[in-house]
Amino acid sequence: MSAFKLFDQDFRLFLSLVIPHIEQLSDGRPEDDDGTVRVALADVGEARRRLIETESTGLTAEFERVKRLARAVVALCDHFDALSGVTMCPACDQRIGDCAAAAPYDAVGSSSGPSSPGLPDEAACE
Question: pLDDT tens digits for 83-101?
């Protein structure tokens, strides 16, 4: 089985699982709530369109099709985080808040703290 088919299967499975969660998280929230819900639902529609694309002929075309699925996965992961309020620490893969080194997004980095606002000091997460 080719790598494209394996990625295709994984991305399709993930999208089939995350789409209902995003729709559920969006349900009942006002759509004008800073546009978060509206954009999330628009990307759900885009992901659904990606799911009905048929397998492409040719290596380049198939790569592009699977890449579009991957982009839909990334977009919906971001929307899930935004709608659920769950944010993962890029250094330790823990939920922000569970990671002792997590800094608030308005914090200013310094030589003694995070190098980027909102990002934890990696050494403190380990």
Answer: 888 777 767 777 776 555 5
Q: Specify which residues 96 forms β-bridges with.
A: 99
pLDDT band with cut points at 50, 70 and 90 for residue 106: very low
pTM of the model: 0.70
**What is the chain's length?**
126
| Closest among 92, 55, 49, 94 to 71, alpha carbons compared | 49
Q: Cβ distance 44 to 22 under 8 Å? A: yes
SS3 of the chain: the string is: CCHHHHHHHHHHHHHHHHHHHHHHHHCCCCCCCCCHHHHHHHHHHHHHHHHCCCCCCCHHHHHHHHHHHHHHHHHHHHHHHHHHCCCECCCCCCEECCECCCCCCCCCCCCCCCCCCCCCCHHHHC
